[in-house]
Amino acid sequence: LSKRNLYLCKSLYLLYPQILQTLSAQLSWSHFTELIRFEDSLKRDFYAEMCRLERWSVRTLRHKIGHLLYERTAVAKKPD
Fold it and tell me: Could you report the per-residue pLDDT of 35-62, keeping only the tens digit for each?
């Protein structure tokens, strides 16, 4: 693995220590590399859950992120 991939592996583990095994069966490495860019855990979890439930491809995930799906939902406005 390259230095970059090792860094991404470590970042992924730190963000998802408990659920990584379950989530990794449903999402690809490319999904995770998109998701770990988010500092906001609620936003990251929102997109991860949408990928899992809707079975989004990485292309679809990038499209939804680019069109600010999270920001346009009630979750972003009222996280409680």
Answer: 988 988 889 889 999 999 999 999 999 9
Q: 31: which 2 tokens?
A: 């999904």
Closest CA to 12 of 30, 36, 34, 28: 36
Please answer whether residues 75 and 49 qualify as being in contact, where contact means their C-beta atoms are separated by less than 8 angstroms: no
Structure-token match 């406005």, residue found: 77
**Is the Cα dihedral 40, 6, 50, 63 positive or negative?**
positive
- Closest to 65 measured CA to CA, from 54, 79, 52, 50: 50
CA distance 26 to 37: 19
Q: What is the pTM of this model?
A: 0.74
* Tokens matching residue 62: 């990038």
